[in-house]
Structure formats: C-alpha cells, structure tokens
Request: fold
Amino acid sequence: MRLLIVEDEKRLALSLARGLTAEGYAVDVVHDGREGLHRATEGTYDLVILDIMLPGLNGYRVCAALRAAGHDVPILMLTAKDGEYDEAEGLDTGADDYLTKPFSYVVLVARIKALLRRRGQGAGASPVHVLGDLKVDTAAHRVFLGEDEVVLTAKEFAVLEQLVVRAGEVVSKAQILEHVWDFAYDGDPNIVEVYVSTLRRKLRSGLIRTVRGAGYRLEAGR
Reply:
C-alpha cells in the first residue's frame, strides 16, 4: 500500500513517515499544496494524508481539485484547527475522514486502516494484475508465472509492484527508490539494479526491459 503525506510541518511529516513505513506502507512526503496535488494526480496512491494549512494551495483546494478531476483516492485531512465548520468544509470538498491535531498516532493508524479496508470492500475484489502469463496479486503479495508460484522477498515484490501497476510505461530508478525505499533513502541508488536483476532471474529475463537513461519497463509479451 502506498501513502502520500502532504504536510508542511517537516518534523511531524518525517515522524509519520517513519512510523507508517514501520507499519509496512510505502510512504512519500511533500510539504507544499501544489506539489501534493501534482504527486497525488500523477502517482498511484492508496491513500492521501492531507494537511489543511499548506503553502501554495491549502488542503481544501487540493482535495476539491482531486475530486473535480475524478480521483477517488481516500483522503484523510489533518488540521490544527477545531470546530464543526472546519470539519464540514473538509468533508464537503470530498475528504473521507478528518483528524484534528494533536492526535494519537494509534488513532491515525486505525483511521488509515479503516479507510483502506472500506476502499477494498468497495472494490469487491483483490487487485490482481494479469500480463500474459504473469499474475501479480498486490493484496495477497503472491506472484505466478504460468501455473508456478514465484516466491519473492518483500523488497523484490515491492519493486515488481511498482513496475506492474505501470505496465508498459517507463518507471525511473528514482521513482522506484522513492516508493520502495522511501523518500529519506540515501544509500547506493544502484540497489535498484540489483533487485531488477534478481527479478529477471526469478521471473524471465525479457520481462523487464531497461530503457537506457530513463528506467525500466515491464513488458508482458516478452
């Protein structure tokens, strides 16, 4: 599951990102409303945690713009404000839930899980991606090549998931690093190449194509 945190209080954002990463989520963080809107529009997120008081665009406007563009990603709004008017405005713009600062981290996680569970029930089925003889179940974390199940580590699966949800598109090394290792990763970026090489060995060498200078593309027909 991929989460986007749009929060200009950097210490709070970093703390939330670390905690949610430890919970098993892939987490991206931005600190500006305009950048948050861009990332939420361009990315594939399962949930957005959106502060209201943001530079650039406030959370109300970001939420309203996402809904106007047809994006149905669950949005959990955060604010230091208090009162029924704020809550009503947040929910009227299309937010799914609302949490007033200061809040308990345990409550935040419970709200996130509830929203994700509700979204999963609404979808009615596990998100299973089928590309040729490759089948990837992103809910159950299972991969099949033909009739055979392929056992992957958590990181291997996370890299494959980034490619499969954008099958046919080029996914850059930086995008994979951000979504699998999180925004704060400062190690060797060539670690992505190591995992792609392992996936090719476990799956099929021609399945993941290197696009020189751009990234990688998953091609079902190869």
Notes: The chain is about 40% helix and 20% strand. The chain has a mean pLDDT of 83. Residues 105-123 form the longest helix (19 residues). The CA atoms of residues 101 and 110 lie 15 Å apart.
